[in-house]
């Protein structure tokens, strides 16, 4: 006797468009309470499935950073994928895949795309944040053309589809059938760790560790814990306890999983304290950012990008040289100086990793980075926190010098781009829009004006023409360039979930032979005062101090 498995019924649920489902810098991010409303996540996911390119028998990757609401949305996304013609879903065990690991899985298994469930560095929990981002077949965040089509679809949607099946067991590795679609629960770490072993000289790092190299890594109770335990402690031999806060928690232990001086202050205390290890690092909620601290020295992300690019040839994957270096516009120009000396092109893109995808696909850039602690290369199509940590370790293992010395030698060769970002968070949206509106209105009259002794040379609003596909992205931030090369950039955040966040990016270049060992706040004091004079920050917002300085 043959038994037949009844095909679970496809449920078609009537719905209506829900306002505000426009993806920002990195996907759709809202409070959990917003995402948990009836039809909210379903409308967005159905809109993705309705517009994205995929052939017959397509594979979808699903993974998240483990935050609250992750499992609920994953189960629903699986039921919806089965009703929307996907042949296979690959999902990380426990619903966990770091953002770079998800990018790798998409590429490695030839998936047509993936759903990355994360709100990155934003806090998690029932009253905090959640997010969904769609990545395309190259493993990278969907470009603006695709996110715009998804958004358009959310404004017209009338129904979503799912199969009527129970939740699957996300914690056991293996393949289960969901209404004829294969769902494979995969090891979240294995493929990623194997990729890292290919890129870097693990033997050299292991030898350095055996020779006494020490480090401290703060996983911030976020997604990189399992990756860091496996790679740093198991494969590279760092002492147990090197990884702290290594167990992913749905609320990140009540903290912001944002690797900066404010939220990773314990790591800073360790690195600036007595008996500090040689190297300190941290990553964010979804594992795509990195914080680099040497013993007694914080390396700004912009400097880290430049130093990694300058030394990348010391790691096997980059021994043949780099094709180009790309950075987001607000990131300091330190990386450009490295590109110049290497005789390779430097690209300046808008904020957000989606703008690097074309350059990486076209082989025009090898290493990319953002001032917000994001660095990565052509090994995946996302920024990659542990990748940056491992490249630093590979460099330290080869150069056998402290981070402070590597930094000092870098500045002595290239000059130093003193840099800071001041964030004004939780502003009333009208106040923030009024500030930016006034600033944009003044662009034509700013050149020639003097603030705090600094003369404005040019002022514009950054627009980017993608050199590969010619697409144009406008209104990407106001740039004020001063005579002598200092710079202030103003832009509004596209990842927040409450009010508006104004980001003010400050940069002063000190050439070779100048004061290369100064204190950043002192070196930037006149620019900080000028920023208020130019944009009327206190006048518009009532704030005299930023909420966070990074
Ligand atoms: C911020 C950063 C940006 C980064 C983005 C996503 O965007 O400034 O550089 O790409 O977050 O990072 P915004 O629009 O708030 O300035 V993550 O780690 O949240 O995926
Ligand atoms: Co992130």
UniProtKB/TrEMBL annotation:
Q: Spell out the Gene3D superfamilies in the cross-references.
A: Alpha-D-Glucose-1,6-Bisphosphate, subunit A, domain 3 (3.40.120.10), Alpha-D-phosphohexomutase, C-terminal domain (3.30.310.50)
Reactions mediated catalytically: alpha-D-glucose 1-phosphate = alpha-D-glucose 6-phosphate
The record's listing under Pfam families reads:
PGM1_C_vert_fung, PGM_PMM_I, PGM_PMM_II, PGM_PMM_III
Q: What is its EC number?
A: 5.4.2.2
Q: Which cofactor does it need?
A: Mg(2+)
Query: What GO cellular component entries does it have?
Result: cytosol
Q: What class of enzyme is it?
A: isomerase
The UniProt entry's GO biological process terms, in alphabetical order, are: carbohydrate metabolic process
Concerning InterPro entries, the annotation shows: A-D-PHexomutase_a/b/a-I, A-D-PHexomutase_a/b/a-I/II/III, A-D-PHexomutase_a/b/a-II, A-D-PHexomutase_a/b/a-III, A-D-PHexomutase_C_sf, A-D-PHexomutase_CS, Alpha-D-phosphohexomutase_SF, PGM
Q: What keywords is this UniProt entry annotated with?
A: Isomerase, Magnesium, Metal-binding, Phosphoprotein
Name of the protein this chain belongs to: phosphoglucomutase (alpha-D-glucose-1,6-bisphosphate-dependent)
Domain named Alpha-D-phosphohexomutase alpha/beta/alpha is located at 21-159, 191-293, 302-414
Residues in a coiled coil are none
State any single GO MF term: phosphoglucomutase activity
- SUPFAM superfamilies assigned: Phosphoglucomutase, C-terminal domain, Phosphoglucomutase, first 3 domains
The UniProt entry's sequence similarity note says: Belongs to the phosphohexose mutase family.
